[in-house]
Specification:
659 residues; two-stranded antiparallel ribbon
């Protein structure tokens, strides 16, 4: 089953944990890929499976093969993840547009049963809030619905109003459902085409050199072509460097394989390094092809948009006395441009502009993969030495000078274990070649099985990835309608002598060395067909599913006892319960308030503490009496001749001890 179940996901997570404990950081998708490859090899899926998977990843012998798989999985994962995100955004936009379309169809179905007043009330709402919003969403102009693009909103609404006036809403809703759906899509493309045409006019008025004004529909073509040219130059340099390095590996391996056994440590290391660089070159070559195809498509689409805008401009200029573009919309007036001539061109312009935006989104994927591959440009310390290289070049040069340009250095030592087909020698070779039905042809065939790599070298030389010869004669074999390529005539004859055994051995080799799967199946679709469980897109989607789990860690015993925290809690869920409990207590606090007259409805008690009485007694008691002043009025009684006067008397009596 190509889908990922919970057990597969848990197994991959456990492998990641075990590798992390061993000091190796492993991507979860790579772990899932490795586990799926082990299951293809027939490793029992029991309790010891995760331990076996982790040990094979951690083993020094397989580190370079794991690095090769990491590079392949990283490229496929980025491509799959970003492509899925782009598809999700497009699907979300289509769903929102479909919601508006369903609302239109619902109203159209009930429209004949409405009264004239109900129809009039619906017209304004449907025209402005449903039809206009559908056009913005379907045409990718949703910025016009926001508050930050007032200029774009006005231009879009003017174009919409010119193509679909409000008084045509009633007639539009009387059509059948298929006609309404088709004309809604046409309406969105026409409005988008008008905005693209208006941008073209603005560029012409500015001289064509200045950028588009604020609020205009952005043109993705110039940015795409600029970035595409930079990536083309960068990727070509990286591909040339990788191809030259692979040629050096082939030269050394061809010479060293003459005198070393297939299981020699140096040969295995050189083969792994060669396969790593071949995988890198395959990824870069695919990026080059995708980038070149994208540039070609964008050139064609940009030219179509330009030609369509020129046709619209020519139609408008031919309509004398009619201003074809007003307030951001192409308007049709009596004696002006005919709709049946103008609208198909604008619809084509809008559709081509939407295709340009899709190409710009696809270029982001290519650029992201290219940027990620820079991390794998020099992933290991090579085993190539000048001595090995010079010796290999010398032997190869001598062979070509003696036997011609297609001569090989010699027949290498090959694997003769029971897992691969036995080598057939004369006179049995000629007899078997005539019995198997396989046909040996000249090389140079463009469409070859297993990505164009030598099947004989992959099977008999421990998974060595050698490209098939494109010029040497008798290096291709046709068997059961499929063509297989080989590096030399010897390998082609050996395969043709027993092709069915080599095909089975090839599958066993791919199961045993999963890093060869993406080399021999360059496209993700080919990998998914041949090895469904190794589809990185499905593995990435499966590993992105959130799965609840409880994870805890335990530290070693503290070396100093006084540093031990008795209240230490290692369980994360216990800490969460404690935090929730504390937060819950804070919400249980009692709150009260008192109004102005609330003291009449409650008992108030106040307790006053009187000040303490203090007395002081001194030895001698002394006091001071001040002089007393008296005033009285005299002459109020007595003889008539006595006058009235005021008498002031001062009595200074003093203290008894002063007398």
């Amino acid at each position: 089953d190509a889908t990922m179940d919970d057990r597969s996901r848990e197994t991959a997570v456990d492998v990641v944990r075990r590798c992390r404990e061993a000091g190796i950081e492993l991507d979860p998708v790579l772990a899932a890929y490795h586990c799926a490859a082990l299951r293809y090899q027939g490793v029992p899926w029991d309790d010891a499976f995760t331990q076996t998977a982790a040990e094979r990843i951690v083993a020094p012998r397989s580190r370079l093969a794991v690095d090769t798989m990491a590079m392949q999985v990283a490229a496929d994962e980025i491509r799959a993840t970003m492509t899925a995100a782009i598809a999700a955004d497009r699907r979300d936009r289509e769903e929102r547009a479909a919601a508006y379309e369903r609302e239109v169809l619902t109203v159209a179905a009930s429209f004949p049963r409405m009264t004239q007043r109900e129809q009039a009330d619906f017209m304004e709402h449907m025209w402005k809030n449903v039809f206009f919003r559908y056009v913005c969403v379907k045409g990718g102009m949703e910025s016009a619905l926001g508050i930050n693009d007032e200029v774009g909103r006005e231009e879009t609404f003017a174009a919409f109003k010119s193509v679909f006036p409000k008084h045509e809403t009633t007639r539009f809703l009387t059509q059948t459902a298929p006609e309404i759906s088709a004309q809604l899509r046409e309406l969105a493309s026409i409005v988008l085409g008008i905005r693209v045409f208006n941008r073209r006019l603005e560029e012409l008025s500015r001289g064509g050199n200045e950028p588009s004004p604020s609020g205009a529909v952005p043109d993705p073509a110039p940015g795409y072509l600029n970035l595409g040219a930079k990536m083309r130059e960068d990727l070509a340099g990286r591909a040339h460097s990788a191809a030259r390095l692979c040629a050096q590996y082939r030269c050394i391996l061809s010479h060293q394989a003459l005198r070393r056994d297939p299981g020699d440590e140096l040969l295995e290391r050189l083969a792994d390094e060669n396969n790593n660089r071949v995988a890198y070159w395959s990824i870069v070559r695919a990026l080059i092809e995708d980038n070149a195809e994208g540039i070609e498509r964008v050139d064609d689409l940009a030219q179509r948009v330009h030609d369509g805008c020129e046709e619209v401009r020519a139609l408008i200029e031919d309509a004398e006395g009619i201003d074809g573009v007003q307030s951001g919309g192409v308007q049709s007036q009596s004696g002006g441009v005919r709709r049946d001539a103008l609208y198909p061109i604008l619809e084509s312009v809008g559709a081509n502009h939407s295709a340009l935006e899709d190409e710009a989104a696809a270029q982001e994927v290519i650029h992201a993969v290219s940027a990620r591959m820079t991390d794998f440009s020099k992933p290991f310390e090579t085993s190539l030495t000048n001595e090995l290289l010079h010796e290999g070049i010398r032997v190869e040069k001598m062979a070509k000078e003696r036997y011609g340009p297609h001569a090989v250095v010699g027949v290498p030592k090959i694997d003769e274990s029971k897992d691969v087909p036995k080598t057939v020698v004369e006179p049995h070779l000629s007899r078997k070649l005539s019995e198997t039905g396989a046909e040996i042809t000249h090389g140079g065939v463009t469409t070859l099985e297993y990505g164009g790599y030598d099947v004989f070298a992959l099977c008999k030389r421990r998974g060595l990835a050698l490209p098939a010869s494109m010029t040497a004669p008798d290096t291709a074999v046709v068997f059961q309608g499929k063509t297989y390529g080989f590096a030399d005539e010897y390998g082609a004859k050996q395969f043709a002598s027993q092709p069915e055994k080599y095909v089975r051995a090839m599958h066993a080799t791919l199961f045993r060395m999963p890093e060869l799967v993406r080399i021999t199946h360059p496209s993700g679709e080919a990998t998914a067909r041949a090895f469904p469980n190794l589809d990185v897109a499905k593995l990435a989607a499966g590993m992105s599913v959130a799965s609840p789990t409880e994870f805890g860690t335990q530290t070693d015993t503290h070396p100093v006892e006084r540093h031990v925290d008795k209240d230490y809690e290692w369980n994360e869920w216990a800490l969460r319960r404690r935090a929730l409990h504390a937060a819950n207590l804070l919400r249980k606090a009692t709150h009260g308030s008192q109004t102005h007259s609330s003291h009449f409805r409650r008992e108030n008690t106040t307790q006053v503490w009187l000040p303490k009485r203090n007395e002081t007694q001194t030895v001698v008691t002394k006091g001071t009496t001040m002089p007393q002043k008296k005033r009285y009025i005299g002459g109020m009684r007595g003889a008539p001749d006595v006058k009235l006067n005021v008498v002031n008397v001062e009595l200074d009596l003093g203290q008894p001890y002063e007398h």
